[in-house]
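Predict the 3D structure for this chain.
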Amino acid sequence: MVAASVSRRAFLGFGLAISGGLLGAAALSRLVPVFADSSDPASPIVGHYNPAAKAWTFVVDTDACIGCGLCVVACKEENNVPEEPAYNRTWVERHVTTADGARYVDAPEAGIHGFPAESTAPGAAGKAVTASYFEPRLCMQCENSPCTTVCPVGATYRTEDGVILVDARRCIGCGYCVVACPYGARYLTPAGEHAPNDTPGIADKCTWCYHRISRGARPACVEVCPVGARRFGDASEPDSEIATLVRERNPQMLHPEFGTRPRVLYLGPSVEEA
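Done. Predicted structure below.
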């Protein structure tokens, strides 16, 4: 497994280079449109977009993920997410298993700066490591979503194409949805420039960059991933990349025992060790 370290400042200055040359000129050229089409992330421009015709599916390949953190950087920039590591729409975890069978998980600063190759998860230092992998996390867009069930004012809702969004005008900041989410994928916005409508305490989460996908673009994290660890598309199109991936590799739900029927599916050790 390859681990890489990413500098946020260097990335924003388009000077970032990932160890081994995994992010070259071709990948850098993809980064510009990620930030150029986000004039109002809260208001998707649908045009001829037909949500009823879509079966959006997101697949994460933990065999491919290198833990570079580019996805976290892109998400924060695209969606006006606070820079502080406590606030994230997506993050990357490091999972380490040692010879004694113990398992350790960490996500320093949500993985935004990557994971230095010489480091390991706290608790695993000095132990023989038998397995390790990086696991990108985000809102699972559950079909049986606890967040929509517990919201007392209907601010958290599901669109016709199955994406769960938050209406910032209706959210009262009670935090019920944050507590109800079994994947820890929600937070309440702090006061300041990141607060929707200048109102702090509004629930926020990954929307699969709804303002992008309703325009025909891919989510920002998918756009910048240099190794294709994040895949997204319309599974209702039988010849699409995502439909082919699901059909041929059979990705699985993370923690199906939760009973939430997530629409983010996983390949690799995330599913094998869950």
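The chain has one domain: 8-273.
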